[in-house]
Every structure is written in structure tokens, then in C-alpha cells.
Specification:
Blueprint lengths: L6 E5 L5 E5 L16 H21 L4 E3 L4 E5 L4 E7 L5 E4 L6 H10 L5 H24 L1 E3 L7 E5 L5 E7 L5 E4 H6 L3 H6 L1 H4 L4 E2 L2 H4 L1
Parallel strand pairs: 3-9, 10-11
Antiparallel strand pairs: 1-2, 2-5, 4-5, 6-8, 7-10, 8-9
Length: 209
């Protein structure tokens, strides 16, 4: 099943669903090819391992990470693929869906709100702010270009938000150099200096404050 991004939802014969994300070319309507190369796969593996480690140590109160279960690189095609199990124990609402007049309004009304924007300010905007602040404080990470495609709202079986935001596209995350140094994770920096080109890792006092 196609989605609004590079993701495909795949259903197996045993009805075990998973999400596949890979490369797409300009024929898909983009100006440029969006290839997932070897360096990106290496970065995904490293950042995913790091975030899992921080999650085990600290627990995350306001968000969950959409971890990748497996990532592979195909040298013959110079392309990579990543896989995620589809966590369907909750309803997952892509953040941009709240802008849809039917979906966003219907969920707000079903939760007793006449004005959808008031409902989503409480149940999306504020929880997202808490989630991103907690992400930065506990991991030294932030998105370099955050947008609604990166975030998913977790709903219970009654379509009420649980208060958790799902953070996905972890390959789009930056790490703060001083934070990693303070927790003795410099090896993550040195291993990927050839890839980040001075952008993925940064140490800006202005930003940090």
C-alpha cells in the first residue's frame, strides 16, 4: 500500500504488516532522485542504536521513537532499504492528517470539541513541543528540518490522543557535539565525520542556549 512518502506498507501472507522505506527516483514526480546510499544506511544504524541506548537508560515520557528493525544495503544497485514493524496496537495518525477537514475535525468533534484548532493545540502542538524538548535534553538530538511528515500522533481505540508523539525519520536527526562529549559518546562523532560534512554534528552556543 502506498503512502504519502517513500514508505510502503507491506502485508505478508501471514498478515504480519511492516513498513518499507527505500529510494525513489525522479520518475516519482520529484525534481531529483532520493537515493538511500550506503552512508545513510550506516548513519541510520548508528543513530538508531544510540537512541535505543538512551531510551533504555532514561525512558521517554512524551514520545516514542519509530525504530528501524532492519536496514540493508545492496551494493549492486547502490541503494539501501530500511524496515519497520508496523505497530498497530494503537491508531497512528500522521500529523499532517489533522489538517484534513474530515479527519481532523471528526476526531476533534468525537472528543467533545467544537473547534478543531483548540483540540489540536492541546493534543498536538503542546505535546510535540514537549516531545522535541525532551528529545534534545535527553539525547542531544534535534531535527535539522522538522516538518509534519516527521511526526505521528498516537491514538487509543476510541480515537483519543494518548499524549505520545511518534518521532520518525531518525536519519534526519542532528546530534549536539557537546552533549555527546559529556556522556562519553565521542566515538559516534569520530566514526561519521566523513559523512556529516560539518552539518549533522554541530556545537553552536547560540543554538544550545
Amino acid at each position: 500500500y502506498r503512502t504519502s512518502s517513500r514508505r510502503l506498507v507491506v502485508e505478508t501472507p501471514k498478515q504480519k504488516n511492516f513498513i518499507l522505506k527505500g529510494s525513489i527516483g525522479s520518475i516519482a514526480g520529484l525534481d531529483d532522485d532520493r537515493l538511500m546510499n550506503r552512508k545513510e544506511i550506516e548513519w541510520i544504524q548508528a543513530i538508531d542504536k544510540y537512541l535505543k541506548k538512551r531510551e533504555r537508560k532514561l525512558n521517554f515520557e512524551h514520545f516514542r521513537i519509530a525504530h528501524y528493525n532492519m536496514s540493508v544495503y545492496c551494493p549492486g544497485f547502490s541503494q539501501g532499504l530500511v524496515f519497520q514493524e508496523a505497530p498497530f496496537s494503537h491508531y497512528l495518525l500522521p500529523a499532517f492528517s489533522i489538517l484534513d477537514e474530515n479527519i481532523g475535525s471528526k476526531i476533534a468533534h468525537s472528543n467533545g470539541y467544537e473547534k478543531p484548532h483548540e483540540f489540536w493545540e492541546i493534543h498536538y502542538v503542546k505535546p510535540l513541543a514537549k516531545a522535541l524538548c525532551e528529545l534534545f535534553v535527553k539525547t542531544g538530538a534535534s531535527y535539522h528540518s522538522p516538518h509534519m511528515q516527521n511526526f505521528v500522533i498516537e491514538l487509543d481505540q476510541n480515537l483519543s490522543p494518548t499524549g505520545k508523539i511518534i518521532l520518525r525519520d531518525i536519519e534526519d536527526i542532528k546530534l549536539h557535539q557537546s552533549f555527546l562529549t559529556s556522556i562519553a559518546e565521542e566515538k559516534l562523532l569520530s566514526h561519521f565525520e566523513h559523512y556529516v560534512d560539518g552539518e549533522t554534528f554541530y556545537d553552536s552556543p547560540d543554538f544550545f542556549t
